[in-house]
Design brief:
Blueprint: E1 3-8, H1 9-23, E2 34-39, E3 43-49, E4 53-60, E5 62-63, E6 69-74, H2 75-83, E7 88-94, E8 97-102, E9 105-110, E10 125-131, H3 132-140, E11 157-162, E12 167-172, E13 176-182, E14 191-196, H4 197-208, E15 215-221, E16 224-228, E17 232-237, E18 256-261, H5 262-274, E19 283-288, E20 291-298, E21 302-309, E22 318-322, H6 324-331, E23 338-343, E24 350-356, E25 359-365
Antiparallel strand pairs: 1-5, 1-7, 2-3, 2-6, 3-4, 4-17, 7-8, 8-9, 10-15, 11-12, 11-14, 12-13, 13-25, 15-16, 16-17, 18-23, 19-20, 19-22, 20-21, 23-24, 24-25
Helix pairs in contact: 1-2, 3-4, 5-6
């Protein structure tokens, strides 16, 4: 079946760009290097999958088609070609070739039948909807901590929990823990999903390119989680390994509150990190009423001793050891000028908390024992 359709370069490039991390990932099937084109009389639908995450996007087109036609084309190649074109692009489908014309450009690419492309889920059960900008704000406060290839598979993802009271996102790398909670979105029936790191990062990109006020629908389809926007459906398989029991370590019973300047503390941590020279050397943090003393000694580089003003701390002196990069990694995601935190003793974590609008943010860092240095 032959056909002609016209698209705008900018809009098509945006859809193809979002699919590149998916179609460029090596899988057991060569066909996943292709992008599925489905051309209807008024709509173009694209699909890409790496068998773990999948993306379906659509856009309106002008065409002379009276029936729907489908074909596969190299995802990388069509993206690179469209990137170097401008304005409106005319597409002509004839037998096993796709011709592209725009201005003085006239080229053709080989295509093949879509029969071997993995089928996409069709029956999505929508559970709730939320604003893209709000969920993106939550993701930005936790996604940075997801490990890449931790031996514990369950740590290579983000736990998403929703119940009748709140929505909760939790990430841990075994040394630190990041959590965001909101009461703005709830579900009558409690749900828990462990999303892979790649899914979280690609989802962030989709939300970044979405309208601030766009509604995103969250649903399920078999064993996959589905996020749907105005022109896309994003599918991800889930990690089946159980996420660690994190709630006991977040219990603040017996902890004492305190506060300090974020900028001053971050500068101290950055100077401390400069003395590490790639080594795992912990720093000593001594909390006293009104004052925090930070010291670090690296025999091969040098030493550091600093003092910072400590507010609202009225407990006994506490001395703990922490690895400065672990603290620095998470505190840069805090937006407030003053850091509110809780400390108990040298064997317990330090717990930072902040509330920004409807989002409560927590960042926890475990102490380092002397034997770990």
């Amino acid at each position: 079946m032959d056909g002609k359709f016209i698209v705008t370069q900018k809009e098509l490039l945006g859809l193809l760009s979002a699919m590149q991390p998916i179609c460029n990932k090596k899988t057991t099937l060569d066909v996943t290097e292709s992008i599925f084109f489905q051309v209807a009389p008024r709509e173009l639908t694209l699909k890409a999958t790496d068998l773990e995450i999948s993306l379906q996007s659509s856009m309106l087109i002008d065409s002379n088609l009276t029936e729907t036609m489908s074909f596969l084309i190299s995802g990388k190649r069509i993206f690179e070609i469209i990137k170097e074109m401008d304005g409106n692009i005319e597409f002509f489908v004839h037998e096993n070739q796709l011709a592209l014309k725009s201005g003085g450009v006239d080229l053709a690419l080989n295509i093949k039948g879509a029969e071997e492309f993995p089928p996409f889920p069709e029956r999505i059960e929508n559970l709730m909807n939320f604003k893209a900008a709000f969920i993106l704000q939550m993701l930005n406060k936790v996604a940075f901590l997801i490990p890449q290839n931790n031996a514990n598979i369950a740590l290579n993802g983000m736990l998403l929990e929703i119940n009748n009271e709140q929505m909760n996102m939790v990430v841990t790398d075994g040394h630190s823990l990041a959590q965001v909670v909101t009461k703005k979105y709830t579900l009558a029936e409690e749900k828990r999903w462990l999303m892979p790191k790649r899914a979280v990062l690609e989802l962030k990109k989709l939300f970044e390119s979405s309208s601030q006020e766009e509604d995103i629908f969250l649903g399920t389809c078999g064993n996959q989680l589905v996020f749907s926007g105005k022109n896309f459906n994003f599918f991800t398989k889930l990690i089946s390994d159980p996420f660690p029991q994190y709630k006991p370590v977040m219990d603040k019973e017996g902890f004492m509150p305190a506060a300090m300047s974020k900028d001053a503390f971050l500068k101290t941590l950055k100077r401390t990190s400069c003395l590490l020279a790639g080594q795992f050397v912990s720093s000593t943090f001594r909390f006293t009423p009104g004052l925090l003393k930070v010291s670090m000694h690296n025999k091969e580089v040098g030493k550091l001793d600093e003092e910072l003003l400590l507010e609202n701390y009225a407990a006994q002196d506490v001395e703990s050891r922490f690895y400065a990069p672990y603290l620095l990694n998470g505190l840069q995601a805090f937006s407030e000028k003053n850091l509110q935190f809780f400390i108990k003793n040298g064997a317990k974590p330090i717990i930072f908390e902040s509330q920004e609008g409807d989002i409560v943010q927590t960042y926890l860092v475990m102490p380092v024992s002397i034997s770990q240095n």
